[in-house]
Amino acid sequence: MHQTTILxxxxxxxxxxxxxxxxxIRGYAAIPVFSAHEVFSRIEAHNPDxxxxxxxMPDSDGIEVLRKLxxxxxxxxxxxxxxxxxxxxxxxxxxxxxxxxxxKPINIGELTKKIxxxxxxxxxx
Length: 125
Known about the structure:
Radius of gyration: 13 Å
Mean pLDDT: 93
Strand content: 15-25%
Distance between the termini: 17 Å
Shape: globular
Helix content: 40-55%
Largest sheet: 5 strands, parallel
Structural class: alpha/beta
Strand order of the largest sheet: 2-1-3-6-7
């Protein structure tokens, strides 16, 4: 059976590393990435099933990263994460191709349900 691979893109190193550990305990392959500039090389290296992408990072706008990701990998599932609860940003993320979004602090149960939903859709399609 295929192990679901998650790329966690967040400039908060401790947060991304801890979330990766929590996902690995649940059987996922989780790769933390700490800057938007690393995303594209990591996509090529790891071919993730899902990208958990921070909406606001110091080195890049999450929406722009999302748009570039969807251009090179239209079928990749992206879940936007934000601690800022801005409805306009969430709407823009969905319009730009995000499959879903989740608010920080992240509830691991809610996140794994979203991941399972997205990967089940991919496996069926």
